[in-house]
């Protein structure tokens, strides 16, 4: 396997990881920011008020986007299977 092929495979894998993880994490970060601003404005310092909305949003994103996540991962896996001759040869 040449270094170019290895770098291309690694690039595709890292891009897939970044896309899938950011699709899950970014909505939770945005909700956390909104809750933090609300807590700062109202001087409410309740830990569960910050944790629970982020948990709910993360679970909703996983349930709504689960089909898309699995489809992206399956496409990547099929692509890797088709590249086996390139990697071996």
UniProtKB/TrEMBL annotation:
Its main location: membrane. InterPro entries: Bac_export_3. It is a multi-pass membrane protein. The keyword Nucleotide-binding does not apply. It comes from the Bacteria. Signal peptide: none annotated. The chain crosses the membrane at residues 13-39, 51-70. GO terms for cellular component: plasma membrane. It is found in: Cell membrane. GO terms for biological process: protein secretion. Keywords: Cell membrane, Cell projection, Cilium, Flagellum, Membrane, Transmembrane, Transmembrane helix. Pfam families: Bac_export_3. Belongs to the FliQ/MopD/SpaQ family. This is Flagellar biosynthetic protein FliQ.
């Amino acid at each position: 396997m040449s270094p170019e092929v290895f770098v291309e495979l690694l690039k595709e894998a890292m891009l897939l990881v970044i896309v899938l993880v950011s699709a899950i994490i970014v909505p939770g970060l945005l909700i956390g920011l909104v809750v933090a601003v609300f807590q700062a404005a109202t001087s409410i310092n309740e830990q569960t008020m910050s944790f629970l909305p982020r948990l709910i949003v993360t679970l909703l994103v996983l349930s709504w986007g689960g089909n898309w996540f699995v489809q992206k991962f399956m496409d990547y896996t099929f692509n890797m299977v088709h590249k086996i001759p390139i990697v071996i040869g």
